[in-house]
Amino acid sequence: MSTTGQGGHGRARPRVARGAVGAADGLLLVDKPAGISSHDVVAAARRLAATRKVGHAGTLDPMATGLLVLGIGRATRLLTYLVGADKDYEATLRLGQETLTEDAEGEITAGAGCRPEDLPAALLSTALGSLTGEIMQVPSAVSAIKVGGVRSYARVRQGEAVELAARPVTVSSLDLRGQPRGATAADGTAVVDLDLGVSCSSGTYVRAIARDLGAALGCGAHLTALRRTRVGPFDVGEAKTLEALSAQVEADAASTRPGGLRVLGLSEAARRCFPAVELTEAEAGALGHGQALPASTLERAQAPAHPITPKSEASPGHQDSQEAAPGDAGPGPVVAGFAPDGAVVALLAARGSRARPVLVLAPA
Prior knowledge:
The chain has helices at residues 38-49, 79-82, 121-130, 152-157, 206-217, 242-253, 266-273, 281-288, and strands at residues 2-4, 13-15, 26-32, 54-56, 65-72, 87-95, 98-99, 108-110, 133-137, 146-147, 150-151, 167-184, 190-200, 221-231, 234-235, 264-265, 276-278, 293-294, 335-338, 344-351, 354-360. The protein is of the alpha+beta class. It has three domains: 26-84 and 235-264, Pseudouridine synthase, CATH 3.30.2350; 87-231, Pseudouridine synthase (2-Layer Sandwich); 274-309 and 332-360, Archaeosine Trna-guanine Transglycosylase, Chain: A, domain 4 (Roll).
């Protein structure tokens, strides 16, 4: 893989091979490198998959590396549900300096300094504990949240002071990895670098964790490195680099019978993400045509090892023919229904006394 053109902030976009044929519907797990945007990765995936129908289940900042979950073809319709999956990160924080963007890309705004001897184990443990569990977190000011119709990060970069409301998030674990390391910043400030493992709910800002830990310790802090290692049931160990994906597509294109970019198939992806119910031929046929089934159908569902909890059961754009009738109970957990041949037919959820499809995935 080489680079060409310019991405955001003058970064070079990756150049990858073009697929000889369109990829199958499914998920693509990419190990994003530092220095390019998530949208650059999506653009590369469109070329690799030989289709414009590519979307993502949550972005990473350009400085961050690790797992991006992309949807190809009909699998883009699953992304609404994957956005809410819990995530794991490996993060490095620098204590003793604050920056405008709360990460290493922003200008330094304060430098109180910090030394390892300033961080007794009890103090650090208490500070980390205060940021663990169900907490109210003020999002990073340099975020995509809109304030008066304008992205917060755009206002900050224009010199405005932005105050965002705190939001509920869950930080399941915030673990110290190794010992704090004393260092000297480029401007001569004594600082401490800290490695953390973070498990958190969707919508959690790791930069904000760095900011708040620095505030709790009284020395200020910012994020210097971030790697996403898990999204729901998907691990970065399963992901491929753009270089590896490009090489696979090149080799495939040179073969006598190209099959296109290899992806995690739609049915396997659904089975890993949602409780699965095995349908009869009659049930699969009805569900594939948007018809509801008895709610008791859902009692046969078997949960996967790491089911995701969608942020919302379905967005308006992803509703199919059967919707909850007035007075019906709200949606229950989303379940994937599979035909006898193993193909996913639809996602369904309880609506009152019926199990109704919220997303039909069977080909029309």
